[in-house]
Amino acid sequence: MARLVRIDLGSRSGRRDVIVVDPFLLPRRGLRADLEGGLPFRDDSVDEVFCYDVLQRIADLPLALQELWRVCKDGALVHVRVPHASSPFTTWMDVTQRRGFTLEAFGRLGMFALAPFDLEYARLRFTGHRPEDAHPLRRLLGLLLEPLANRSRVAQYRCERWWGHWLGFDELYVVLRAVKDAQELQRRRLRPPRGRPAASAQRP
């Protein structure tokens, strides 16, 4: 059975069954690279990607999404964690961050040739991935509001569109599935994006 290739961009997943890709840190089992400079992996070679707290710092986001799509196999999963645009505090608390995100933006990727990904799972997080660090009152509000906002995709849309910005959801977590099957892309009338060549030190 072939070994699954999982990569962790930014070394934030905490998993041990991944190849860490980070431009600054170089653990024993890691590569010094990033999305903006190009990933050292062949086309269609990666089964799963963990991309936590990375995309908000990317200058050229469309190019980064295309690079993610390039290395993914058909059906590969990409786990993304980013600040939600409804919370100015979370979005701009770090001077290296360039943007916040909405679920609606990720939901539209499957309709464009930019980087064909389908949205598999999504969750709006009121207190982020570490609720224990939030103020007790905010934690309590999160226990009430997160189930309400995440009841369904329609509920998530209504939260983003109508009331979420009044309270500020700190974080968005999504799982994307790469769409690379030629027949499926043709059915959607999409042309595969033209990716750049892989970086020199290719893995796996």
Description:
The chain is an alpha/beta fold and 204 residues long. Helix content is 27%, strand content 22%. The protein has 6 helices and 7 strands, in the order E-E-E-E-H-E-H-H-E-H-H-E-H. The radius of gyration is 17 Å and the shape is globular. The mean pLDDT is 91.
What's the gist of this structure?
The protein is an alpha/beta fold and 204 residues long.
Summarize the SSE layout with pairings.
Blueprint: E1 6-9, E2 19-21, E3 30-31, E4 46-52, H1 61-71, E5 72-83, H2 88-92, H3 103-107, E6 117-125, H4 136-149, H5 153-167, E7 171-178, H6 182-187
Parallel strand pairs: 1-2, 1-4, 2-3, 4-5
Antiparallel strand pairs: 5-7, 6-7
Strand content: 15-25%
Shape: globular
The name of the CATH topology of the domain at 6-125 and 172-186 is: Rossmann fold
Give the topology string: H per helix, E per strand: EEEEHEHHEHHEH
State the major sheet. Answer: 7 strands, mixed
**CATH homologous group name of the domain at 6-125 and 172-186:** Vaccinia Virus protein VP39
Helical fraction: 25-40%
List keywords for this structure.
204 residues, Rossmann fold, alpha/beta, globular
